[in-house]
Design a protein that fits this description.
It is built from 1 helix and 10 strands; from the N terminus they run H-E-E-E-E-E-E-E-E-E-E. By secondary structure, it is an alpha+beta fold. The protein has 2 domains: 1-32; 37-142, Immunoglobulins (Immunoglobulin-like, Sandwich). Strands 1, 3, 5, 7 and 8 form a 5-stranded antiparallel β-sheet that branches. A 5-stranded mixed β-sheet has the order 2-10-9-4-6, with no helix packed on it. The longest helix has 30 residues, at 2-31. The chain starts with a helix and ends with a strand. The relative contact order is 0.23.
Amino acid sequence: MLHDERGQAFQIMVVLIAISIFITIYAWWQTRPQEKISILDASFEKKELAPGQSTILTVKIKNKSDTLNASDVSVVITPSDPHISVGDGTLVIPAFASGEERSPKFSIAIAPEALEGKYKIEVRTSAESPFKGDTKDIYITVKA
């Protein structure tokens, strides 16, 4: 009987150690440094437009790495509606230094036949491995 109790105690100890190791690894995984091209801000010169008007969208991005330079960084602007158009919706930055910030600008136009409402525009970054991109939805209001 004493042998069984020691065996159970040993099994419990092994399970507790395994859980402790798992929690430690998971905590590290969640807080590890990640190489990322982040969208810090995306804003319009004018947030409210009438049909037929245009504005400038400025996207503030940052290379969040402390040590790695990124290459072939893309900033892509994708309107959710055909009544919203982007002059050149993709910008490629060939070299983006660690810690660097940039603020590319995009021309946004509202079609003359656009209806009143709030329109979503997706802003997305991407880069070559090991970098991760970022996505942000922003909205522009059309009022007649």
